[in-house]
Amino acid sequence: MKTATRGVIQRDQACVVAAFLDAQRQSRDRVEAVKDECQTPPIGRTPRRFGPKAQTAKGQAMTTAKNTICLWYDSDAEAAATFYAGTFPDSAVRAVHRAPSDFPSGKAGDVLTVEFTVFGIPCLGLNGGPAFRQSEAFSFQIATEDQEETDRYWNAIVGNGGQESACGWCKDRWGVNWQITPRALTEALAAGGGEAKRAFEAMMTMRRIDVATIEAARRG
Description:
Blueprint: H1 2-38, E1 69-73, H2 77-87, E2 92-98, E3 111-118, E4 121-127, E5 139-144, H3 147-158, E6 163-164, E7 169-171, E8 177-182, H4 183-191, H5 193-203, H6 211-219
Parallel strand pairs: 1-4, 5-8
Antiparallel strand pairs: 2-3, 3-4, 6-7, 7-8
């Protein structure tokens, strides 16, 4: 009976979050439509909010993307998004949405959703409670240029309460999975034949990918 009750509460929380988010987005879309009509830029100039370095202040909403990755967290989506923003380039916390009133498993002011980007990819962190957990069924794959970049991201994730896995995979402290994949590995596997076979066999012995070892295996 307790399990059934807990399930209902978690379902209600998810519904409240979804309803609140939908209301936020509808309101934002109306505001953006008015801005677009009233703030046509002079010929040859680009509005600041569309510039390459444009930043949206915390608490404000970014322009709605056509497709957004939604990640389910227990209660610390803001901490996760802040970590990603401080670790990866072209990443930022764009908006934090709080509950306007009390709800079945929380109170007014609690963080419900967080809009953020990871390498420019729009994401939404949803504080949905402990009902669902992250798994290897979803992961971010980060292409790295060399060993230094590979080590930097790997150490940041694992060193912040994360966990090593195999073949370039690791998991952050919130359970989100990451593939830190040097381009040297991708290119070796794409080469086919003996090069790919040797590189693949070398990869299967690794946790963090060692670029020099992969390149040596490829050469034979």
